[in-house]
Amino acid sequence: MTQPFLPVTLEEAEKRGWEFPDFVLVSGDAYVDHPAFAPAVIGRWLEAHGFSVGIIPQPDWTDPEAFSVFGTPRLAFLVTAGNMDSMVNHYTVNKKRRRQDAYSPGGASEKRPDRAATVYTRKLKKLFPKTPVILGGLEASLRRMAHYDYWEDRMKPSILMDTKADLLVYGMGERTILEIAEALNSGLSAANLTFIPGTAFYSRELDTFDNPLVLPSWRTLQSSKKQVARSFLRQMDHNDPVTGQPLAEPYDTGFIVQLPPAEPLTTAEMDQVYRLPYLRRAHPQYDKAGGVPALDEVQFSLTSSRGCFGACHFCAITYHQGKTVQPRSHEAILEEAAAMTQDPAFKGYFHDVGGPTANFRQPACEKMTTSGACTHRQCLTPQPCPNLTVDHHDYVTLLQKLRKLPRVKKVFVRSGVRYDYVMADTDPTFFEELCRHHVSGQLRVAPEHVDEKVLALMGKPSKEVYEAFRKRFEDFNARENLNQFLVPYLISSHPGSDLKAAIELALYLKELGHTPEQVQDFYPTPGTLSTVMYYTEMNPVTEEPLFVPKEPDEKRMQRALLQAKLPENHALVRQALNKAGRRDLIGRHPDALVPPGDEVKKTKPAPPKSQGSRRKNNR
């Protein structure tokens, strides 16, 4: 018998014989019963362990009745903003409202509030003051401690202080939420749940905690950018389940306490999570709206791992998921893949097999799982650690097995390949297999920049590593007569990037003959070292001053330089080159980035109107 959707209405709950569910999960996303959507994972995980869960997806936050669909849950409300940070979901880096929300039915953009986790939690605390509210998901996880908020351009306290939630689950929450559920079910109150790894909470005192590391206070963080940098570095040092200590951030009336992260899931537990009875489609209530667009991107993709030891400074994955890579077994992935091939909509193509970094399928080194991640160095930058385990054999074998499944035409790798890890592998098998079988015409890689100073601040390898990979890729494709191309992802206006660095990148792109279709301005979001750089205007490690492009004109010029070939950017590029003292790059000679031109557009006078004529409205 096919497992039904988790209930979204009281009628659906009553059909299951529930008077009220154990948990009510309030989500900023539409309900898609698929393992790529966190509310479905948590709901199904709790269900598999004997707990009843009702889902309130995208409630009307202006209507109290919308939060009362199931009445009062027996144990707690669970709140998540959804798969994405609601502010990133709503606004571009220029703080302009986005027109579409891929996680809402039909792509509608008004289905969730700004700061959804905060709005939902405050509503629930007001409507159900005696019922525990437990926060989770990406938005809450990245705001578990005091953080810089780009949209308000100021420091904000822990989201626990803003919402008064009883407990916050950070990171990937299956292990933690199950321990919470079992503790609440045993009769413990939420106030007594001060021992569960992977949680943060408010406490008036620290007496009951074993040797907590006290961070700079909220008052100090408001007045000292240097202390903001130091605090975040300490948080990153203790973001490991093996070596992490409890952290305490002081406020006027008490402390936000963060316990060490939960242990990563074992391969068997990962398999269990992905074998839950997902229906792998959006709830039928969204059919009239055309479904939920975000499902299209992942419907025929396979998650093979979690965690990332790449630790790019502008990426929050390390702060959220941790450095320890957690793989699924081949058997479980092949089982899921075989089932997907039976879907009538399957056309023979798996769109992706990967995770945060596709070609990471095991921990960085043997000691990471027993001794924890190093705090004094990164695994891959500035050079690969001598202890790094570089081995693609397991991933290659998995891809080969997937290619042999009946009805499969192609298996693509699109979730990002860490090219410096590829270059560190002395065995060429993966590289050759990737090029021959798993590139859909274009291989997306992320050099992000070429200026060595900026690359170091990004936590990325040197330009020479990317150049070596690019040459190897192009040579192999030429030799094999494969018409395939690299598509480099680039970031403009990252902290430390001045016009000189942007011009260096523009010249490199000109040398390659490449004009990016899109350029991503650096987007400061909570939970990244680069965001700390942006706010503090210093290198957090050395505490040396750092140029940070913040002025709109500066950012527009840097972005235009990366697309200097486009006529609509010529005026901005000339402005940038004049400002940087590089007029030698303006002209019609081979080395020029942009042709000369008059920056003041002259409009031709309109022809005189004949008597009785009407001017046409040209749009």
Written account of the structure:
The protein is of the alpha/beta class and 619 residues long. It is built from 23 helices and 22 strands. Strands 3-1-4-5-8-9-12-11-10 form a nine-stranded mixed beta sheet, with helices on both faces. A three-stranded parallel beta sheet has the order 20-21-22. The chain has a two-stranded antiparallel ribbon with strand order 2-13. A hairpin with a 4-residue loop joins strand 6 and strand 7 (154-156). Helix 20 packs parallel to helix 22. It is globular. Mean pLDDT is 94; it is low at 600-619.
Spans of 5+ residues with little confidence (pLDDT < 50)?
600-619
- Order of strands across the widest beta sheet? 3-1-4-5-8-9-12-11-10
Helix and strand composition category: alpha/beta
Shape call: globular
Provide the residue-averaged pLDDT: 94
> How many alpha or pi helices?
23
What share of residues is helical?
A: 25-40%
Please give the radius of gyration in angstroms.
Answer: 26 Å
**Strand portion:** 5-15%
Topology, number of strands: 22
Distance between the termini: 58 Å
Largest sheet: 9 strands, mixed
